[in-house]
Write a structure and sequence with these properties.
Blueprint (H helix, E strand, L loop, with lengths): L2 H15 L15 H4 L6 E10 L2 E9 L5 E8 L7 H16 L5 E5 L2 H7 L8 H14 L7 E4 L6 H12 L18
Parallel strand pairs: 1-4, 4-5
Antiparallel strand pairs: 1-2, 2-3
């Protein structure tokens, strides 16, 4: 027999011979207990924009710390460039987070241009985009901590992408301002 099997047999024999009758609650005294507790109250925001022959749409997914998902999908009734179509959902998502009094936010998008411009790694050269950038920077002052911006691949941002495509392709009747969206999973 190998040493491991002998040790394993000894442990199992001991546990079989002396079973634990009752659970003992031991009191531990941690003087710095509050340091051990992590309270991550960060929300997550995923955004994406879409422009195609049918129109322009933006998709936003807000996820609360308790995993509640809030999807937003908006059809734009004005013409935008592809890059402006990426700034629009980011701004909409930040506006929604501000309205919900979110203090800590992690933002994810699949537009490397927008993310790197927000992070200050690239300069904004387009006059149209500089207006978006200035507006977005002013919005960031509403958060307790500056939101963290992270680039995601398109595959990792599928839900926001689907919302944006849905909004760009749908035709909303004139008498309606909004259409409720319900997404559920069935087995």
């Amino acid at each position: 027999m190998t040493h491991k099997s002998i040790k394993g047999k000894a442990v199992s024999d001991y546990l079989a011979e002396f079973p634990v009758q009752e659970e003992k609650k031991e009191a531990y005294n941690f003087p710095d207990e509050e340091i051990l507790v992590t309270n991550d109250e960060s929300w997550e925001l995923y955004f994406d924009g879409a422009s195609n022959q049918m129109g322009y749409g933006i998709g936003v997914l807000l996820i609360s710390p308790d995993e509640a998902h809030t999807p937003l999908s908006v059809k734009l009734d004005f013409s935008v460039t592809n890059n402006e179509a990426e700034y629009e959902p980011c701004i909409l998502g930040l506006q929604a987070a501000i309205a919900l009094a979110v203090r800590n936010l992690r933002v994810y998008g699949d537009s490397s241009l927008i993310i790197t411009q927000i992070l200050g790694k690239w300069k904004v050269r387009s006059e149209g985009l500089s207006l978006y950038q200035t507006y977005l920077e002013n919005m960031l002052k509403n958060f307790e901590n500056r939101p963290q911006f992270t680039y995601l691949s398109r595959e990792e941002n599928q839900f926001a992408d689907a919302l944006a495509k849905l909004a760009s392709m749908i035709s909303i009747p004139n008498e309606l301002d909004n259409i409720p969206l319900c997404i559920e999973s069935r087995e």
